[in-house]
Amino acid sequence: VQLQASGGGSVQTGGSLRLSCVVSGRTFSAYDAGWFRQAPGKERELVSILPWRGDKKLYSDSVRGRFTISRNQAKDTVYLQMNRLKPEDTAVYYCAAKTNSGAVDKIANYDYWGQGTQVTVSS
User: What is the DSSP string of 18-64?
Assistant: First the structure.
């Protein structure tokens, strides 16, 4: 199983980026998808979660209303649309997949991880 994240880059405050995460080679039929981020010197944190059934999308307080998570099942790709970016959004963003029944908001429950894509927001 491979998760390939892309779409990061450098933008100014207020700009937008769309991250993509392509899942390939999977042997499981369903998975919850998540985006996480890690800034220098900080722990990895949850950004947004999209359960397989598509209900109850989850967003961290810091991104709610600015970021949108979505999935194209035909392409097996998960997206994170990021609008009104702020300098504090600067981090390496990781996509991940969870195939177990553990809580969706627990980082440790995610089985598969992408390599990360850098997002830098300048003021």
Answer: EEEEEEES--SS--EEEEEEE-TTS--EEEEEE-TT--S-EE-TTTT
